[in-house]
Design goal:
Layout (H helix, E strand, L loop, with lengths): L4 E4 L5 H12 L3 E6 L7 H16 L4 E5 L5 H15 L4 E4 L14 H29 L2 E6 L2 H5 L5 H21 L4 E8 L5 H4 L3 H9 L9 H11 L11 E4 L6
Parallel strand pairs: 1-2, 1-4, 2-3, 4-5, 5-6, 6-7
Bound molecules: NADP nicotinamide-adenine-dinucleotide phosphate.
């Protein structure tokens, strides 16, 4: 994968960080994106710098690009800057997302807009720019990180679930439009993955979550990253328009 390049949105921490590191370990050049908060990047930039340092320690190349992917201009610039840096973009992982739980009756228009723009519009903006380039090269991998919540909904997560379901239509349409030109688009739908949030949960809540999972444990960010890495390879060229759940069997 030495010459291949990947852009992972929201890769300064969490699952995105793990995806960036795992791609770098396999030789990809990786663009690390964090949300610059509009003003003072502060600790967000520091986290991205730590990821870059790890990438470089592995002997891989990386670049940090601060961009708010919920805004069309900055999402487009993010993809363009990655292509300018290395002259190619092989893999786009739309990972950046936010969630703020709220029952439907309490969801404000602003909250709906914020979550839809951050989680769904962002994937549209980045994919549109990336695909324009990928079809010329007749190679591309679009990998959209959804959630099992996007497939089944969840109490208090109307906005989040709708944004993650929306990725399905986007992904399948890209798969149909550009499959013949070497571009694949797929969805990964994680279940409960260990995160800063799950680490703070009371033991009994964690135990209840784990009881629903045949694998008997929460997922790890690396579990998701390993699947991304496979979908990113030329060997995955016949997997297109699919939603792959990675949830330890929770949904069977
Ligand atoms: P996380 O720890 O909250 O990290 C989110 C990342 O997205 C951060 O790097 C954040 O950057 C970035 N981000 C947020 N808003 C952004 C914006 N407007 N522009 C650019 N970057 C932005 O999330 P996570 O738990 O790793 O989740 C990663 C993905 O997996 C998400 O798509 C999530 O929906 C999905 N997922 C997670 C789980 C889970 O259990 N964790 C389960 C199912 C699906 P800053 O740090 O700079 O804000």
């Amino acid at each position: 994968m030495k010459e291949k390049t990947a852009l992972v949105t929201g890769s300064s921490r969490g699952i995105g960080r793990s995806i960036a590191l795992n791609l770098a370990q396999r030789g990809f050049k990786v663009a690390i994106n964090y949300y610059n908060g509009g003003n003072d990047a502060g600790e967000h930039l520091e986290q991205a710098q730590e990821v870059l340092q790890e990438v470089q320690t592995m002997g891989a190349e990386g670049i940090i690009i601060g961009a708010d992917v919920s805004v069309a201009e900055s999402a487009t610039a993010l993809v363009d800057q990655t292509i300018e840096k290395w002259g190619r973009l092989d893999v786009l992982v739309n990972n950046a997302a936010i969630n703020q739980d709220q029952l439907l009756l309490r969801v404000s228009d602003d909250l709906w807009d914020l979550i839809l723009k951050t989680n769904l519009y962002s994937a549209f903006y980045c994919s549109r720019t990336a695909v324009r380039y990928m079809i010329k090269k007749r190679y591309g991998r679009i990998i959209n990180i959804s959630s099992v919540v996007g497939l089944a909904g969840n109490i208090g997560q109307t906005c989040y679930a709708a944004s993650k379901s929306g990725l399905l239509g986007l992904t399948c349409s890209i798969a149909k439009e550009y499959g013949a030109r070497g571009v694949t688009a797929n969805i990964i739908a994680p279940g409960f993955i260990e995160s800063d949030m799950t680490r703070q949960l009371p033991a009994e809540v964690s135990a209840r979550m784990i009881a629903q999972i045949p694998a008997g444990r929460l997922g790890k960010a690396d579990d998701v990253a390993n699947l991304v890495c496979f979908l990113a390879t030329p060997e995955a060229s016949y997997i297109n328009g699919q939603t792959i759940r990675i949830d330890g069997g929770m949904s069977i």
